[in-house]
Design a protein that fits this description.
Distance between the termini: 29 Å
Number of helices: 10
Shape: globular
Largest sheet: 7 strands, mixed
Helix content: 25-40%
Order of helices and strands: EEEEHEHEHEHHHHEHEHH
Number of strands: 9
Strand content: 15-25%
Strand order of the largest sheet: 3-5-4-6-7-8-9
Radius of gyration: 19 Å
């Protein structure tokens, strides 16, 4: 456990001084370091040191105020400095790609490779924004009615229609709803073009959370990138098929 900017960052690690390369894995939204332990163990057996922190609120690291992308990037940067980690592979899952991009573009560290695993870059998706606009217009007259407990199920269905299920789950947790809105309302798509790191993109072809169109966008805009699309896997491949995920990484790194 490391105390970073008054936060106790808890983390899991697999370390052997004989291993020459280090991988830092950041779990996705609503995940935690424990969900990556099997992947971490497999990578460790393949001669990598692995460090997997719990990001603020998720799960053993507390969140004492609302975060934004810059705050998360600062915390992870300070965490890595505290552990004296440099010249490493930075692996990000799902919603946290933006923090990886900010850290990579800061040039604070020597990052050998970025691994973006089903990463959610998209913030200006036209289809999703149309859904949000329609919902916003239709919901205004019923704003207070939707807050009734008796209509909670209907409200959740409507929010999941525009992919705001994470928002619903965050509502009753101090600082987390505001943090979530800070994250999804911050579009840094233009910064993708500034990435100079070798980048491995690993995607599931039928992912509904982070559609494969996101992957093609990244492949087109990240100069030194390679895209691997897996046909029959899932957004949570790290849990459902960690062996394939690690094998895909090792063969393409």
């Amino acid at each position: 456990m490391q105390n970073i900017t008054n936060l106790e960052i808890k983390y899991k690690d697999f370390i052997d001084d004989n291993n020459s390369e280090t991988i830092v894995i950041l779990h996705g939204w609503w995940w935690k370091s424990d969900s990556w332990l099997e992947v971490g163990e497999l990578l460790f057996k393949s001669w990598f040191n692995v460090i997997i922190p719990d990001l603020p609120w998720f799960w053993e690291t507390k969140l004492d105020y609302a975060f934004d992308l810059d705050e998360y990037a600062k915390v992870i940067t300070n965490f890595l400095r505290k552990l004296k980690i440099d010249n490493f592979i930075l692996w990000w899952h799902s919603n946290w790609w933006a923090i990886a991009i900010k850290i990579a573009n800061s040039n604070i560290f020597s990052i050998k490779t970025l691994v973006l695993n089903n990463s959610a870059w998209i913030r200006k998706n036209k289809k999703r924004n149309i859904k949000k606009a329609i919902f916003s217009i239709l919901s205004k007259p019923f704003k207070f009615i939707f807050k009734l407990k008796s209509l909670s199920k209907l409200r959740k269905k409507i929010y999941s229609f525009i992919w705001w299920w994470d928002y619903i789950k965050s509502e009753d947790i101090p600082f987390l709803k505001e943090t979530y809105l800070n994250i999804i309302n911050n579009d840094i798509s233009d910064e993708i073009k500034n990435i100079n790191n070798d980048t491995l993109l690993i995607w599931w072809k039928k992912d509904t959370f982070t559609p494969v169109s996101d992957a093609y966008f990244m492949r087109k805009n990240i100069k030194n990138s390679k895209l691997i699309i897996l046909e029959k896997e899932a957004h949570s491949i790290h849990l459902k098929n960690p062996f394939l995920l690690v094998d895909t990484f090792i063969k393409n790194i």
